[in-house]
Amino acid sequence: MVQKTTEEYQSISAHFQSSTKSNGKELIRIELIKNEQWYVKYRAHFQDFATRLKQNTERHLYHGCAQTAADAIIKNCFDRDFAGKNGTVYGEGIYFSSNSSYSHKYVSTNFIGKTTKGNSSMNTALVEFDSTTDENYIFL
């Protein structure tokens, strides 16, 4: 559990409140999940994106899902092989939102890289892009 008095809690809380369109949402708690395997992949992506794009595209994005899916995420990270197959308006993949009103249960740090507008026929981003988006709040 992240303590309310820490800078990390305050930063995430402020981001959550500023990204919601609905007043009255209450942040109940923040639980930090650490996994060395994920962190190694995160650092590799960080280096790749920094070298290739010459800019930081790291964003705090929100994801909502059922508890069973959350348990799988904790164990296996976000795995495209387990991504939903319905609700694929912007392509197949794991949907995140920059707006906590849309997906408010989980926040993660993501590299969005170079984006393109997605569509329902896409099963991955085009070769020259890293992710797809609705060009507003949604990122895959």
TrEMBL record:
Its EC number is 2.4.2.-. One of its GO terms (cellular component) is nucleus. Residues 1-140 form the PARP catalytic domain. Signal peptide: none annotated. It comes from the Eukaryota. Keywords: Glycosyltransferase, NAD, Transferase. The keyword Glycosyltransferase applies. It is an enzyme of class 2 (transferase). InterPro entries: ARTD-AVP, Poly(ADP-ribose)pol_cat_dom. Pfam families: PARP (PF00644). GO terms for molecular function: NAD+ poly-ADP-ribosyltransferase activity; NAD+-protein mono-ADP-ribosyltransferase activity. This is Poly [ADP-ribose] polymerase. It comes from Rotaria magnacalcarata.
